[in-house]
Structures are given as structure tokens and as C-alpha cells.
Amino acid sequence: MACKAPFTVIRRKHHCRSCGKIFCSRCSSHSAPLPRYGQVKPVRVCTHCYMFHVTPFYSDKAGL
Q: Fewer CB within 10 Å, N side or C side of the chain?
């Protein structure tokens, strides 16, 4: 598990569809398509995967 939140009946576990780790809903609140895994519709991904693996880096385009 990558999320340190204690899971209960109310706070459920969610899997990131990109890395497969377990997170709470707050840590996996993003959605993105994952075409390399055959997911063309947006699926749940964790914040880390969303920022570093799914979303392109916008810093290169900041000057445009």
C-alpha cells in the first residue's frame, strides 16, 4: 500500500490502474485514459502516476 491512511468501512481502498498500488480516494482522485493498457476511457490513477507518468510535463511548454 502506498497510502498511509487507515482504511475502514467508510474509507475504502482504491487501486491505481497505472501502478496497481492501493490508495484512499483522496490520493487517487485523478482520472486519465491509459491506452498502453487498453483503457481508452479515463480510469482512476493515483496522484503520482497522474503527475509523472500520465500527464506530460508542461514546464517545457510554459514559454510558448
A: C
The DSSP code sequence of 1-64 is ----SPP-SSS--EE-TTT--EE-TTTT-EEEEEGGGTEEEEEEE-HHHIIIIISPPSGGGTT-
- Write out pLDDT tens, residues 15-25: 999 998 988 88
Residues 27-53 have pLDDT tens digits of 888 998 888 888 889 999 998 888 877
> Model pTM?
0.69
Q: Please give the Cα distance from 13 to 24 (Å, whole number).
A: 5
